[in-house]
Each structure stands twice: as C-alpha cells, then as structure tokens.
Amino acid sequence: MPLRVIEIVTPREDKEEVIKSLEEHRPDEGYVFWASPLDDDSALSFRVILDVQESENVLDKLENLFSWNEKYRIIVFAAEATIPRLKIPEKEEPEVTQNDKNAEVTIKNRISREELYSDVLDTSVMSKSYVMLVIFSALVAVIGLMRGNVAIIIGAMVLAPLLGPNVGFSLATTLGDKKLALESSKTLAVGVALAFLVSLGAGLLLGLPKISSELLLRSTTSFSDIILAIVSGAAGIISFTLGVPTSLVGVMVALSILPPLSACGIFLGAGETGHAAGAGLLFLTNIICLNLAGVVTFLLQGIQPLTWWDRERAKVTAIRMAFLWGIMLAILILFLYFGIIS
C-alpha cells in the first residue's frame, strides 16, 4: 500500500494540544509521528507517516481540530517506504451515535480528498501550456485521421487534453464546488473550441479527396461505443482516486474524446455535413458517458465534502447532475435503438 507523509506546521505553544490529538487517534489509523523544531524557534513541524488509505481520515480530524486557523499549515506528500514497517492496527467496529456524524471511521482505498482535488485541479485550470497542448493534440489527430494512421491517432489520444476538465467537472459536481465547476467548464469549452477550429481549418484548407477508414470509424455511434465510454470513464476516475497516473494511458486510448471532435471539424470543413453530424454525436456521447460515469464513480468511492451540511448540499447537486446525464444518455440510446441516428 502506498505511503503518505502529513506535515503539520504549528506554533510552539500548541505543541501539547497537537500531540494529545495525534496520540488519541493513533490507535485507529496506526500511524507514527514525531516533532521537529523549525529555524525560527517559534514553530514546530510534526510529521505523520501512514498508509494512503488512512490519510483522509487523519486529515479530516486535523482540519476539525484546527477549524481552520492561519497559524497552521498542513502539507501532504508521498513516501516510498518506511523502516520499520507500519503495524496494521486491529480495528473494532466504532459506535456511531446520531449526534456525532463525524465519529465513523471508514477505510478508504484511495488517496485523500485534498490530494485528489489537487491532482484534478492541475488538469482543469486554463493555462498557456493547456492551450498549446490542445492545439498540438488537434494537429496530431488531424494528421492521423487524414492519413488513416492508427499510431498517430493513438498519440493524440494519449495527450488527451480534454480528459482532465471533464474529470474536474465531475469532481466539482460531487463536491458541490462551484469554483472548480466554473474553472473546469471554461477550460473544457476553450479546449473543445480550439480543437474544433483547428480541425475545421484543416478541412477547409486541405479538403477531403479521400475519406480514410479511421475517419469513417469516428462518424458513427453504436451501443458498444456507449458501453466502452462508460466503462473507460469509470476506470479513469478510479485511476485518479488511486493516484496511479500510469494506468490513465490505457484509459486515454480507450476513451476517445479528441479524435471524434477532430473528425467532426474535418468533415464539416470539407462539406461532408452528414459525416460531421455523426462524428459530433460520437463526441457528445463520450462526454455524456464520461461525466455520468465520473459522478457515479466518485460517489461510490465516498468522495464528499468534510462538513455534513456541505455533504447534504453536494449530494443533492450530484444526484441532480447524474440524473441529467442519465436522461441525456437514455434519449441517445432510444434514438439509436429506433434508428433515428446512427
């Protein structure tokens, strides 16, 4: 199991209070900790080493303890190993009263909410690097689609600049975080617009004397595409929550977001409106399935805000959005079933 180090910087006068709190919770989480003085002699640094699955429980307890005060600072970073190894605590079933909703301690087989939020935020924020990545990815996709070269298309899939903002929007929905939702939506909108314009320009300038098989594959939608998008989306979300970025490569390839969008732009620029509509529909299908799978998987993984009032509000938002994505998917399935679209 991966390890995490939680560093707590506190004023020196609060040393005993922090030690008492850490000692009280140590039997539940099975961590070890120690304190070190900082250079200015007015603050201490506590370091706690524990399994990643316990990090959210400890962070939530620390945040409740500090509630929140500018005097404190908590930093989380990864640890490769510790010697001697951590002991696995023997857990007893905790008694949870109605008046103490935060008393329940559950093992979460994932990274902490704060660590997940930081990882997702990195891929959801608008930046010059993101804009360049979208443009380069779109160019790679256009070249691969026009040449019918699968290897080049996979290169565009691996870059996957549109995956992060979608995951960010799903996490924002689950947490009821309006700021992250707006940032992810803005980043996604800009990314989609740029990729489409690059592809449209290629279609207008170069035309389409020959439609490659790879382009044709992105101009139709089938039930298998829906299943693939849902399964791949759920797998991608789990990869994020486990903090295993290497497994995302396979998800990026399976969940093809950019190539259908590029195909739509190429077809439209070349005057192939029928094929353009089909490619646009496949792109929309992937977006719907990814966000639906994202919200549901985040909920199943137990991702929720810290305080109970935020949890209730976020739960309502997540259920409403999941219902909305589900309705859109149901309409799409009905259209496919009755042959209205293909």
UniProtKB/TrEMBL annotation:
<feature type="transmembrane region" description="Helical">
    <location>
        <begin position="251"/>
        <end position="270"/>
    </location>
</feature>
<feature type="transmembrane region" description="Helical">
    <location>
        <begin position="321"/>
        <end position="341"/>
    </location>
</feature>
<keyword id="KW-0812">Transmembrane</keyword>
<keyword id="KW-0472">Membrane</keyword>
<keyword id="KW-1133">Transmembrane helix</keyword>
<dbReference type="InterPro" id="IPR005240">
    <property type="entry name" value="DUF389"/>
</dbReference>
<dbReference type="Pfam" id="PF04087">
    <property type="entry name" value="DUF389"/>
</dbReference>
<protein>
    <submittedName>
        <fullName>TIGR00341 family protein</fullName>
    </submittedName>
</protein>
<feature type="transmembrane region" description="Helical">
    <location>
        <begin position="130"/>
        <end position="146"/>
    </location>
</feature>
<feature type="transmembrane region" description="Helical">
    <location>
        <begin position="276"/>
        <end position="300"/>
    </location>
</feature>
<feature type="transmembrane region" description="Helical">
    <location>
        <begin position="152"/>
        <end position="175"/>
    </location>
</feature>
<feature type="transmembrane region" description="Helical">
    <location>
        <begin position="226"/>
        <end position="244"/>
    </location>
</feature>
<feature type="transmembrane region" description="Helical">
    <location>
        <begin position="187"/>
        <end position="206"/>
    </location>
</feature>
